[in-house]
Design brief:
alpha/beta, about 30% helix, 12 helices, 14 strands, 8-stranded mixed sheet, Alkaline Phosphatase, subunit A, globular, 2 domains, Alpha-Beta Plaits
């Protein structure tokens, strides 16, 4: 094969994982929840085989699916974006990244204040929209930075664009990234610029930027790049891997632009992997527990999927998966949920087959490398290895 298009539908889980209770999740199922919405309509994903996967109870209309399919179980000890994508790329994380339910300790904050020359507000887990509502006015009056976290391994810095320019905020994030290593090596430091006023309210802008921890071992991206193949990152893939192993990248403002970039690359000549993250499911709908919004976004993708399928060439393979769950109907928390994820592999040379349940996301990386003819040492086994 010449090209693989790997699309991550961020947070699109398909059912509770066996170890979900260890992560505080009970009876979670993102697919089941969004399927309850009147806006849920996925005929193309149905045709590919989404509803024929192990454990999926949502009814589809397709009996004879046209893609290879599997249900993926995460082996890493985490349910966040960084660890999920690392495992998709062939690196299993035996230990969770650090989280800070009580806020960050002084051994992190003292050097951060010293190097930025600014104070710190909040310093506890908080909703990103609520934190600027509650601390935005004080931030504008004092110039202190709003620092907060979540259930994920993240150090987030919010600042008004008229008080701290995005470029300066990015530099503060680089300071934090240098500090947050070793036992405090959080998965991501995230810049969260916002605009507005105390009177009219504050809103976050599209100038978010993530500063990720480097993967602890070589990934499929490194192997492909070393083999002379193109590795194209669309959306926040560049941020998740801190640019490592990537030969070309483009950021996106959301799903609509991300899908357009897929169309663009389908029309370009390249040789290798186009790795795409569509973030809106998680960021706009999963964490905000918006079932209908999530369903509408999936339906939009399914509509646009027709154009993707039509543009695939004879040496192209389309893969669709997810990095974790974020059940929008689960009200115990607003965090990610520990779930199985879907894996769809479609192309002219791919035999439709149900490969059952796989015990690591890293099988995706092994399958990509096999299809693109690249060799390297990673976790996981190719979907096409062994009898089928």
């Amino acid at each position: 094969m010449k090209r693989v298009f790997l699309i991550v539908l961020d947070s699109f889980g398909i059912g509770e994982a066996p170890d979900a209770a260890a992560f505080g999740d009970y009876n979670v199922n993102t697919l089941r929840s969004v399927a309850s919405s009147p806006y849920f309509c996925l005929p193309n994903l149905d045709k590919l085989g989404l509803f024929r996967m192990d454990g999926v109870t949502v009814e589809g209309k397709t009996e004879n699916h046209i893609a290879a399919i599997a249900r993926m179980q995460e082996r890493s000890k985490g349910k966040d974006t960084t660890i999920g994508h690392w495992e998709i790329a062939g690196v299993v994380s035996p230990d969770p990244l650090p989280t800070y339910p009580e806020g960050f300790p002084e051994e992190v904050l003292e050097p951060f204040r010293r190097e930025t020359g600014r104070g710190v507000l909040c310093n506890k887990p908080y909703s990103g929209t609520a934190v600027i509502r509650d601390y935005g006015k004080q931030h504008m009056e004092t110039g202190d930075l709003i620092v907060y976290t979540s259930a994920d391994s993240v150090f987030q810095i919010a600042a008004h664009e008229e008080i701290v320019s995005p470029e300066t905020l990015y530099e503060y994030c680089r300071v934090a990234r240098r500090i947050l290593q070793g036992k405090h090596g959080v998965g991501r430091v995230i810049a969260r610029p916002f605009i507005g006023s105390p009177a009219e309210g504050f809103v976050r802008t599209s100038h978010r930027h993530d500063f990720s921890l480097l993967p602890p071992a070589p990934t499929m991206l490194d192997i492909l790049k070393a083999a002379g193949r193109d590795v194209i990152a669309v959306g926040k893939i560049w941020d998740i891997f801190a640019g490592q192993g990537i030969t070309e990248h483009v950021f996106t403002s959301g799903n609509e632009e991300g899908i357009q970039r897929i169309y663009d690359y389908l029309d370009k000549d390249f040789d290798g992997l186009c790795f795409v993250n569509l973030v809106d499911y998680d960021m706009l709908y999963g964490h905000r527990r918006d079932v209908d919004g999530y369903a509408k976004a999936l339906t939009y993708f399914d509509e646009k999927l027709s154009g993707i399928l039509e543009r695939l060439g004879p040496e192209d393979v389309l893969m669709i998966t997810a990095d974790h769950g974020c059940d929008p109907a689960y009200t115990a928390t607003t965090d990610h949920t520990r779930e199985y994820t879907p894996y769809i592999v479609y192309g002219e040379g791919i035999k439709p087959y149900n490969y059952g349940t796989r015990n690591t996301f890293a099988d995706i990386a092994a399958t990509v490398l096999e299809l693109l003819g690249a060799e390297g040492t990673i976790a996981g086994k190719s979907l096409f290895e062994g009898p089928h």
